[in-house]
Design brief:
The chain has 91 residues and is an all-alpha fold. It has four helices and no strands. Helix 2 packs across helix 3 and helix 3 runs antiparallel to helix 4. The longest helix is centred in the last third of the chain and has 24 residues. It starts with a helix and ends with a helix. The relative contact order is 0.12.
């Protein structure tokens, strides 16, 4: 995910990388009830946190405070879920 976000520094890749992050965030939201029971959930929630942070910064730069606050709220929710996961699971 971080490599994709890094791609936004290149004008020819910026739109596609931003669309990918939005798409992943939306996909995570759609599957938030089923993915916790599947393998790889920790990696998925970490990727969602990265995408959410990235999208929050885009919203902040564009002056969209309501969207920025929504992403911040989602980040808090995901961080809390991740912390619970790390407390319960042992690999």
């Amino acid at each position: 995910m971080r490599q994709i976000m890094y791609a936004t520094k290149f004008p020819e890749l910026k739109k596609e990388a931003e669309d990918f992050c939005r798409g992943y965030f939306n996909q995570f939201e759609e599957n938030i009830k089923t993915w916790p029971n599947e393998d790889g959930y920790h990696h998925r929630i970490a990727a969602a946190l990265n995408a959410c942070s990235f999208l929050r910064e885009i919203a902040k730069r564009s002056g969209n405070t309501s969207l920025e606050q929504e992403y911040a709220r989602k980040m808090t929710l995901y961080q809390n879920r991740r912390h619970l996961l790390l407390k319960r699971k042992r690999w």
